[in-house]
Fold this sequence. Notes:
The complex is a heterodimer of chains A (264) and B (688).
Chain A: E1 2-16, E2 27-42, E3 46-51, H1 58-65, E4 73-78, H2 89-92, E5 96-99, H3 111-121, H4 126-139, H5 155-167, E6 173-177, H6 185-200, E7 204-208, H7 212-218, E8 221-226, E9 229-234, H8 236-243, H9 248-259
Chain B: H1 2-18, H2 21-54, E1 57-63, H3 67-80, E2 87-93, H4 99-105, E3 110-115, E4 123-127, H5 133-161, H6 165-169, H7 183-221, H8 223-227, H9 234-270, H10 274-278, H11 287-314, H12 318-338, H13 356-366, H14 372-396, H15 399-403, H16 428-453, H17 455-475, H18 480-483, H19 491-518, H20 528-533, H21 538-565, H22 572-586, H23 590-610, H24 613-632, H25 638-643, H26 650-671
Parallel strand pairs in B: 1-2, 1-3
Antiparallel strand pairs in B: 3-4
Amino acid sequence: MIRVDNISKKFIRNIKSDSSKKAFGKKTKEEFYAVNGVSFEAKEGEILGILGPNGAGKTTLLRMLASLMTPNDGEVEIYKADGTLIEDPVDKKKYIGYLSGNTKLYNRFSTREMLKILANVYGMSGEETNKRIGFIEEVLEMQNFIDNRIEKLSTGQTQRANIARCLIHSPEIYIFDEPTLGLDVISSDAIVNFMKKEKENGKTVLYSTHYMEEAQYLCDHIFMIYKGKRIAYGTPAELMEATGTDNLRDTFKALVNKEGGSDE
Amino acid sequence: MNRKIIFTLLKKELTDIFRDTKTIIIMVIVPLILYPLVFLGSMLLTSSLLRESTVKTYNVAIVSSTKETTENIRLLLGEALKNHEYHFHVEEINASENYERFIRDGKYDVVISPQNTENEYPNIIIYSLTSSNKSSTARSMVDVVFSDYSDKIIEDRLKDAVDDYETLKEEPFKIVKEDYSSKEETTGMMIGYIMPFMMIISVLMGAFTVAIDISVGEKERGTLETLITLPISNTQMMISKFIAVTIFALFSVAINILSFALMGIFVFNSMSFAETFVGDFKFTQFIPSILLMIVLLVLFTMFVSSVCLCVDFMAKSVKEANNLTTPLMLILMTGAGMAVLPGVKLNIGLALVPILNVSLLIKELFMLNFDISLIAAVFASTLIHTTVAIYIMTRVFSSENILFGEGLRSVRIFEKRANMPKDQIPGVGDIVMVFALMFLISNFAGGFIVLKLGFVGYAFSQLIIFLVPVLYAWYMRADMKNIFSLELPGIKEMVGVLFFVSGSYIFNTVLVAVLYNEFPVIARDNDMLSGVVSGAGFIPALLVIGLMPAIAEEAAFRGFLYGTLKNKRIPILATMVITAVVFAAYHLNLLQFIYVTIMGLIMSYMIYNSKSILVTAFFHLLNNSFSVVLEYHTDLFKNVKLLTTRKFELKEIIMYALIGIALVVIGFFISDNKIGIFAKRSKNKKEG
C-alpha cells in the first residue's frame, strides 16, 4: 500500500521581467510548486490512474512516489504486504517498480545480462534470479530476443525489456508513467493486460496516461492533478456522475475547463 | 550487502565501458599502434633526411681573379674532401655577376671571392644564405677548409721560427674528468624528465573520456534515471562510478607504459652503444622508484577521477562537460609540465601543491633521491586532496540534483549573480567550496609565490584568504552584514580585548615555552615568523604580519565560516569550537595548533558576545603586532623574548599561567553582555 501525505515539490524557473528595457530582458528566478500539497492512498489490488494535462505535475509526482525525488514537504509512505511501514528511503525502492519514458536501458547489454545485474543489486540469489528470469521471459514472450543486445531491439521489444526490468524484483507497487505512449495496439494491449493481471495478484498499480478510454476501462480510482494541485478524486463512474458526462474524456475536459483551461 | 552492491555496479560500469568500441579504440589503439607508428615514422624520416644530406654535391663558385689564386682554391677544396662522401663542384664566375641571385636561385651554394690577390695569401669573402639548409652547410664546410689551411700556414711559420716546436706543442698538463654519477643515475635523470609528464598525461586522458561518458553521458542516454530507480544510495552510485573511472584511467596508464616500454626497447636495441651500456647497468636500482611511483599514481588517479567526475556532474550535457573539462585539463597539464622547468625542485612547500608535487616526486624518484620526509609529504597531501575531492563528489552532488538538472544549487557560485535571491545565507556546501578554493589557490599560486617572493608572497596569500570568501559572499548576494558580523562594537568589548590579548599572550608564551622544551621535535619549525619577515622593514612587517591577517583571516574564519554556521541549526558551542579548530588547522603547524586553538576559542567567544568582527580583528591585530614588535625590538623586550626558549621552573609556569588566565577572566567579566560589569549600560541587550 502506498500513502501520500500532503507532498509538495518546489522548483525554480527563470522568468523574464518586463520592467527591464534591455533587449535581453534580465532573467529573474521564481519559485513555483510543481506539486502542491497532494494526498491520496492506493491499496493492494488497486489501479490508480493519475490524469492531468501536460505540465500538471504528473511526472514530478510519480518521481517522488518512486523515491527518485525527495519532496520539499510531506511524506510518501510505503507499506509492506504485512502492513509495516518502510522507513529507509533507499529500502523503499525495493518495493517499487518504476517505468517512464525517461528510464532508458543500457544499450551495450543484453536483456538477460541487465536483468542479472539488477537482480544482484536487489540482493537476489543466483538460483532465484534464473527462476525469475525464466518466468518473466515466458510472461512477456521475450525468448527470441532476450540474449540480443538492447541496442538491436525494436521499440516494442525495448518496452517489454523495460517492463521486465520493473518485474525482476517482484515489487509490491508499480509506478508507470505513460507506459503505452507511442506503442501500437498489440503492444499497448499487452501492457494493459499485464497491469490487470498484476492487480489481480494483489499488487498496487499507479499509472499516468493521456488515453482516457484506457483509463476509464482500467482504473479503480482516478486522481486528477492540475497545476500541481488535486482537482478531483474518485472512481471513473463517480467522476462522470459529478460532472454529468458519460465518458472520461468529457469528464476530463469539464474538470480542466472549470479550473481555467489547459496551460498548453 | 553494501560492498556487494558497489561491486555489482562497478562490474556493470566496467563492462559498459569496455564494450564501448569508441572508447577502447581511443584508449588502446592510439597508444599501442599510433604512438609507435608516429615515433617510428619520425625516426625513419629523420634518418632518411640525414642520409640525403650526407651524399651530396655542393656547388661552389669562385669569382675570377688571378689564375694562380683560382687554381689554389680549387686544389684546396678538392684536397680537403678527398675522403668524404660529398664533394665540391667548383666553377668559375665573373666578378660582374649577381652572386646573390645565383645563391638564392640555388645555382651555387656558396660563392668564394678572393680579395687583394697581389698579397701572398689573399683575403677570402664567402657568400652564402643561412636561411637555406644546403647553403649554410656548404658555407661551414668551406669555412673549415680555409681555417684549417690558415692553421697549417701558421704552424709552418712557427716550425720555421723556433727549433723545439714539437715540445712546445705538447699539452702542458692533462685534464682527467671523473663522473660520480652512475649509469643508473644518468639514465634516471633522463627518464625523470620525461616520465612525470607522460604518466600524468595518460592518467588525464584515461580519466577525462570515461568520466564524461559515465556521468553526463549516462544522463544524456537516459540510463541514469533507470539506475536510480534501484535501491542504491547516492554514495554507492558515486563510489562505483568513481572506482570505475579510476580503474579505467589506471588501465590507460598501463597501456601507455607498455607502449613506451616497447618503443624504448626497440630504440635501445637499434642503437650501437646498447651492448657496452647494458654491461653493468643495474635495472634493480629503479625497482623502489617504480613501486613508489605506482602507488603514487594510484592515489593521483583517484584524485583526478574524482575531480573529473565533480566537474562533469556540474554539466548538463556531454558538450558542456567537454567545455568545462578542457580548461581543467590545461591547468592540470601545466602543473605537470612545470616540473621539468629548470630550478623547480621538490620542497615542503611544493609538496602541498596538487599535481606539481606528484610530477616532481616522480622526477626525484627516478633520479634516485629518496627523501623520506618529502615522499611522506607528497603522499599525505595527495591523500588529503583526494579525500577532499571525494568528499565534495559524494556530498555536494546528489543523484536527484544531477539527474533533474539543478545539480549545483547547493553550491551557489554556479548560479548567475543576477538570479540569486537577495540576502542569502550560505550553506555548508558553500563553506566547503570557499575553503577548498582558498586552499587550492593559496597552495597552488601562493605556495609558489611565498617560495619565490617570501614576504610579498605572504601578503599575497593573505589577500587570497580575504578575497575568496568576501567575493564569494558578494557574488551569492549573501547577507554581508549578518555573515561578516559588521556591527560597531561597544566600548567595554574593546576594553575587554586588551585583557584577553595580554592574558592569552602570556598564557600562550608559557605554553609554547613548555612545549618547546618538552617536545623539541614538534617545536622545530616554530620560528616561522622570523623566516617570513627576514629582510623586510619594521613598518611593512607590521602591516603584513599585523594588520593583514587581522582583516583577511577574520573575514574568512570569524566572518564566512562562523557567520554561516551560526545561522545553521548547530549548537552555538559547536560552531565556536569548529571555527577555532579549523582556524588552528589552517596554520599547518603542530605546535601552533595547540595555542591557536585556545586563541580561536577566545575569539569565537568574543564574536559571539559582541556580534562585531571589529572586536576579533582588534584582538588579532594586537596579538600579531606584538609578535612583530618582539621580533624587531628584541632589545626592548629582552626578557619576554627569552621566555620562549627558557626552561621554566614549575612554580613559574603556574604563576605565569595563572596571570594569563586571570587576565582572560577579567576580560570576560568586563566584556560579557550578561554578567559584565557594564551590562546595564550596554546597548547590545536586544540580542537573543
